[in-house]
Amino acid sequence: MSSQDIPEENLPAAQDHAHGSVSVADEETPFADPGMPPHEHRAQDIDERAAKRSERAVALLFTISMLATLGFIASYVTIPHDKSIFVFPIGHISALNFALGLTLGVALFCIGAGAVHWARTLMSDVEMVAERHPIAAEPSVRAQVFDDFRQGAAESGIGRRKLIRNTMFGALALVPLSGVMLLRDLGPLPHNSLRHTLWAKGKLLVNVNTNEPLRPEDVAVGSLTFARPEGLEETDEDFQDQIAKAALMIVRLLPNDIKDKQELAWSHEGIVAFSKICTHVGCPISLYEQQTHHVLCPCHQSTFDLSDGARVIFGPAGHALPQLRIGVNDEGYLEALGDFAEPVGPAFWERG
User: Fold this and answer.
1) Transmembrane residues, as ranges (predicted)?
2) Quick one: pLDDT at residue 162?
3) Is the pLDDT of residue 23 over 70?
């Protein structure tokens, strides 16, 4: 419905506002002012029932936002952090993260949508014209302001009473530390967790596919096997955190093909164990070239030579893969003889 279809007596009263005068182009003002277009009334300006419908729609959006906020709080309190759900087409995800993201997103969206709908349908849409004027103050006003400032500074004694001035600056500088200290509650401190993994002397190398401890005869020459530490199970609460540091790849080489002396000393009958975590951005390495003994990171093509201490021969990785010293226990199973000699992955190197 347009304003042309409504009788003149039903239209809202004209408001007293300036639309700016229309000017004509001439030599002094080559660009003419076209003026403001005629104002067209909305349905809500004409029909009170339409205005009520818009009012109820805005109130509904705000109410949904309130309910979503309550749902966010309830989700945070009641949903276990280790519970997962299946969401098509994403797959299995954390139920808590999904609920928090969904409820908070709905709450914020409804507030924004309600405010926009309120502004577009119920608030005044009459365009107002304000003639521009010089922003800068008059020279006399500027001079008066500077004089008042200098007089106030002199009367306060901030320049003469240095003890008060310096302690005030110190207090203002230190008080923000109170807010910084609150960041301590965002999570546990890492301490030295980046320097250590679950590998330790006597830990068996467990095949990630069979969940069985590995013997030397299980690793054929030229094969690539992935292993995890004995005792680490997928059902453990911290499995993802631990496997991200302890993931291991095992390759059997001919002893004569191993160029690095330390690598040979830390191996067992040509079986070498290196971290599976790329030293670039932490991607899992899984591509092995048997003839050259090179492993390739699929993310950014960093290439490591497993016959020469897993040094970088191509790509953006800046460090060789850490090697795990291994041996065989009395029962004939492969075991670790300690932890990695250096932190695995990229985080340690990037953070110094």
Assistant:
1) 58-79, 99-119, 163-183
2) 81
3) no
Taking 80 as the threshold, does the pLDDT of residue 330 lie above it? yes
Contact 243, 249 (CB under 8 A): no
Place of tokens 């599976």: 276
Q: 């809500």: which residue's tokens?
A: 44
pLDDT in tens, 299-322: 999 999 999 999 999 999 888 999
User: Rounded distance, CA 226 to CA 207, Å?
Assistant: 6
H runs (alpha helix) in 79-122? 95-121
pTM for this prediction: 0.50
The region, left, alpha or beta by phi > 0 then psi within -120 to 50, assigned to residue 202 is left
**Is pLDDT at 20 greater than 50 in this prediction?**
no
Reported residue count of the chain is 352
Contact criterion met (CB below 8 Å) for 18 and 129: yes
DSSP symbol at 221 = B
Structure tokens at 114: 């309600």
Helices 48-78 and 95-121, packing angle to 10 deg: 160
